[in-house]
Design goal:
Elements lengths: L1 E2 L2 E6 L2 E6 L4 H8 L4 E5 L3 E6 L2 E6 L3 H9 L6 H12 L6 E9 L2 E10 L5 E2 H10 L4 H20 L2 E3 L7 E3 L5 E3 L5 E3 L5 H15 L5 H9 L8 H25 L4
Antiparallel strand pairs: 1-2, 2-3, 3-7, 4-5, 5-6, 6-8, 7-8, 9-11, 10-13, 11-12
Amino acid sequence: MKSGRIVEERVGPYEVRRRNEVATQAVLEALDTPGQVLKKSSKAVTRRVGDWVVKESRSTVRQRAKQALRPGAYLRAWKAALLFETAGVGSAKPIALVRRRKLGAIVGSALIFEHLDGSCSVEQWAARMHETGASEKAIRGFLSKIAQAVARLCDTGAYHADLSGKNILTRNGDSFYFIDLDGVELNREYTDALQLKNHIQLYDSFCDLWSDDVLAPFVTQMLPRGTDADVWMEAVRRGQAKRRARTKAIWRKQGKR
């Protein structure tokens, strides 16, 4: 089935959704190419294959069970990427979504996106700014542009469950790209609790580098008018302390420092 920019088809055991200008064979070849491993987790392996990034779910009993019970969850990142592309929200261009079926059940899935050459996380960019002694004006400008990018994401009706700095990329400190879209939910009401969670994640990404003199305006820029900024920032600081304590406890359990 062809629908505008996206083609949906069945190729053997594979269900393929791909961009109209991308060949099916190229998509399937990317799945079979080892490439350069960028990240591994218990859930997925992410690797670079040429100009693309392939994020493939691990074929474990647990993952297969999740895919069988909640097939819609594995469409989240794909749908979010298509929405962001249409809405002008920065993210890697979606190339294809492939799901493999066996005896009618989904037993594997892979997302393929463009590779964002020359990009790094905003946490890394911020560290460079700190190391090179960037001016307060430059820091404020950088953070303000991140806040604007977050606002554009929220305006789409999407909620990103992990909006920490590692999941926001930049090439120049001026434009930004959201990644790890598996954590994005569409048409989710952006409640105070969800907004606070995002602000804690963002605050935690930068608070080791910069003081509240620049971080408080950054956070409160993302708040509706009329919100008590002092009360909100106190909640953010408390939440960040708890988040950091949980992270350190996990590191200790894993033998890390």
